[in-house]
Amino acid sequence: MKFRTSLEPSNSLIDLTPLVDVVLLMLVFFIITSDILPLKSLNVENPAIDRIAPPRTSQILVVMDAQNVIYVGSKKEIVDLDSFKESLSHEIQKHLADADTTVVLSIDRRVEYGAFLRLFSLAQESGSKLRLVYNDTSGQLCSN
Q1: Could you give the CA distance from residue 59 to residue 102 in angstroms, rounded to a whole number?
Q2: For residue 63, what are the β-bridge partners?
Q3: What is the 3-state secondary structure (H, E, C) of 107-137?
């Protein structure tokens, strides 16, 4: 049985299916590769010091917020104090090609001194150079 249709093929219609597929794939790619927890979203108040920071080198960022939560590396992996040394050594191994790898500690000023010292001593045991993040008198974020 043959049916008749009154529709004629037209070249003016554009098929958007491939475009939607590509946009969806790009969206998934950017979501997966983006930083889940950027540093700007962490509420860390660094202490102020009247000093200018030296130039930056290859860095491994370690952040401890006011609730003593520790974030390690560019992906802000959350670790506890017991597994901090392993996580830091793993990050240092990733940066092994860079001879000037520096561990940058950004510690909230409301962190207790004892917790700061424990984290600082574990970071010192890694053998890498250490820098502490602070605010200068003009309010700029610096590290030394």
Answers
A1: 5
A2: 71, 106
A3: ECCCCCHHHHHHHHHHHHCCCCEEEEEEECC
Among 123, 118, 113, 139, which residue's Cα sits nearest to residue 62?
123
pLDDT tens by residue, 26-39 = 999 888 877 655 55
For domain 57-143, give the CATH number: 3.30.420
Pick out the chain residues at pLDDT < 70: 1, 9-10, 35-42, 51-57, 97-99, 137-144
Is the CB of residue 65 less than 8 Å from the CB of residue 85?
Answer: no
For residues 51 and 68, give the distance between their C-alpha atoms in angstroms, rounded to a whole number: 26
pLDDT of residue 41: 63
Distances (CA, A) of 43 to 1, 9, 46, 88, 109: 72, 60, 10, 22, 11
Domain boundaries, the chain: 57-143
- Looking at the chain, which runs of residues are DSSP E strands? 59-64, 70-72, 77-79, 102-107, 129-135, 141-143
Residues across the chain: 144
Would you state the pLDDT for residue 118?
92
